[in-house]
Every structure is written in C-alpha cells, then in structure tokens.
C-alpha cells in the first residue's frame, strides 16, 4: 500500500463527492419510479408494490436484478426499522392504505433514504479500508500525524494531548467526526464560491 494522503481521503469523503458518486443515483432511482396512485387497496398490493420498487431501485443503482424474495426480505427490514415507533410493517401498510402522511409515496421515500444512507456508509468504509486499512498501523499513524499537522489550530484540546500513535486506532472516528463537523461550514462557503 502506498503512503496515505489525508487530503485525498478528505476529498473523497467530501459531501459533494459522496453526492456525485452515491447519493444522486439513489435520488434518480426514486424519481424514476412512477406510482399510479399513493394508496393501495390490499395488503397484497402493498407487498407487491414495495417489492417492485426495491427491485427497480436495485436495478437502477447496481445494474442487476434482485430476486423478489431478497427484495421482500430487505424492504421488510427497512420498513420495520423506519416504522418501529408507529408499529412496524403493519403501520406502514395502514399508511399506504389510507394515504395519511403521504401514503405509499412517503414509504418509498423512506425506503430510498435508508438505501441511500446505507450506501453512503458503505462507500465511506470502503474509502477507509482502501486507503488506510484496519490493520495498517503505519498508515493509521501517518494519517493522524498529517491530521494533527494540518488541523492543530482547530483541534480540540483532548486531541492535542494525544500523539499520532495514540490516535491511530481511532483514525476512522477522528476523520469521520472532522468531516461531519465541517460539512455545514463547507455548505455555506459553497454557496458563495
């Protein structure tokens, strides 16, 4: 593995880059799925619609079909998580049947949001494992050394008390936290420059 480059990793983890590489594709997949209506008449129709949507979304993102039993299992887990406070899958069905809270459109939007977020997280993990690696101690120390040199002026005191070697095992947390903390500032500056 070549020497690790903090600037390259920060560019790859920049929100605009993640949007271009991952997020926009999910938004386009959602946008391209056309609903005939925002409500369903039966549980069977609901079940078929969410499977069809997930298969469509998967095909758009990965260019490969997803078997219905896989789509059913994945989308069921997503809906159970997203609607856990309202009663899970059954609550989502009631929403799709009655049209409350946006009906089926809202459900598909929420499925898309989860798929997009999961893909973004996998992309970020991929960047860390590709450019640093969980077992590459030297790369982790180098990355933290570069980070401390570059951001010493804005680093919190707790971070400044530690050496790059002490931070090395937490490199992913340090970089993720940095990227998340500067995202709002970067967003403001992008409007003006």
Question: In words, what does this structure look like?
Answer:
- With 193 residues, this protein is mostly helical.
- It has two domains: 96 residues; 61 residues, no CATH class.
- 75% of the residues lie in helices and 0% in strands.
- The protein contains ten helices and no strands.
- α2 packs antiparallel against α6, α3 crosses α4 and α4 packs across α6.
- The chain is elongated and about 60 Å long.
What share of residues are in beta strands? under 5%
Query: What structural class do the secondary elements suggest?
Result: mainly alpha
Averaged pLDDT: 94
Low-pLDDT segments, ≥5 res: none
Q: What's the end-to-end separation, in Å?
A: 35 Å
Approximate helicity band: over 70%
Give the tally of structural domains.
2
Order of helices and strands: HHHHHHHHHH
Number of strands: 0
Helix count, per DSSP? 10
Rg, Å, rounded: 21 Å
Reported for the largest beta sheet, the result is: none
Principal-axis shape equals: elongated
